[in-house]
């Protein structure tokens, strides 16, 4: 009976990680408020030109996504460090580089999305050229798959901005089965959150945790034996 009230048992550990996921998700959503506002204004006004400011408004969200992956990997998955300090450490450390990376990724998403929307409107109007919206839809999936790697890569490795953008793309291409799995899982999380908005209080961090299991398997392939061994030692400290 005494083990039921032991704070180190599996139930309380799982409960604690669930609470951590909620806290991280809320932190991430706060950072996404500017982007959410920009998307809302563009949607309500139905003026596609107003989608362009979302490129800049996405900057806090992009930096926060890097911090979210860092905190999920370090605190929730491997029980190292503290939630708040880990999140903001990554946020501040990657602020400058993360801002530029986010601008590049957001510009790709917005421009491809706008072209696809315009082509779709042409298709609805009966224009033959409108069929190109299918091409832009596929291209959007490619950009999203790339973005899925970009922010976690920045959270896990120190590199130049150019190499972050390049290497994350090469990883996505070089690991197509896992990239496809990560993309399908990401889309499922987005659709699930859209259909049941209440899960947004936990889905960002929980979804990132599950993506972490996919992406870490990829990242480990590109780590040296020394780095991999040091990483394993740090992760085992909590359990010893």
Automatic annotation (TrEMBL):
Transport keyword on record? no
Q: Pfam families this protein is in?
A: DUF624
Q: Which residues cross the membrane?
A: 21-43, 49-72, 99-119, 131-151
Alphabetical list of InterPro entries matching this protein: DUF624
**Entry superkingdom:** Bacteria
Keyword Membrane: yes or no?
yes
Keyword annotations for this protein, in alphabetical order, are:
Membrane, Transmembrane, Transmembrane helix
Protein name as catalogued: DUF624 domain-containing protein
Tell me what organism the protein belongs to: Roseburia intestinalis L1-82
* Organism placement in taxonomy: Bacteria, Bacillati, Bacillota, Clostridia, Lachnospirales
């Amino acid at each position: 009976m005494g083990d039921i009230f032991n704070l180190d048992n599996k139930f309380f550990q799982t409960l604690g990680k669930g609470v951590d996921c909620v806290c991280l998700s809320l932190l991430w959503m706060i950072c996404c408020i500017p982007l959410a506002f920009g998307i809302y204004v563009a949607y309500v006004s139905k003026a596609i030109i107003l989608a362009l400011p979302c490129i800049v408004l996405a900057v806090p969200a992009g930096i926060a996504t890097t911090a979210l992956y860092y905190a999920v990997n370090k605190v929730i998955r491997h029980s190292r460090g503290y939630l708040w300090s880990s999140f903001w450490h990554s946020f501040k450390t990657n602020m400058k580089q993360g801002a530029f990376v986010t601008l590049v990724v957001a510009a790709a998403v917005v421009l491809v999305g706008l072209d696809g929307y315009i082509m779709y409107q042409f298709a609805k109007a009966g224009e033959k050229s409108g069929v190109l919206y299918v091409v832009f839809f596929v291209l959007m999936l490619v950009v999203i798959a790339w973005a899925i790697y970009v922010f976690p890569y920045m959270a896990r490795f120190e590199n130049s901005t150019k190499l972050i953008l390049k290497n994350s793309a090469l990883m996505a291409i070089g690991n197509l089965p896992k990239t496809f799995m990560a993309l399908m899982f990401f889309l499922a999380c987005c659709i699930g959150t859209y259909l049941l908005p209440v899960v947004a209080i936990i889905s960002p961090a929980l979804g990132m945790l599950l993506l972490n299991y996919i992406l870490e398997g990829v990242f480990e392939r590109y780590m040296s034996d020394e780095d991999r061994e040091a990483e394993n030692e740090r992760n085992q400290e909590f359990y010893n």
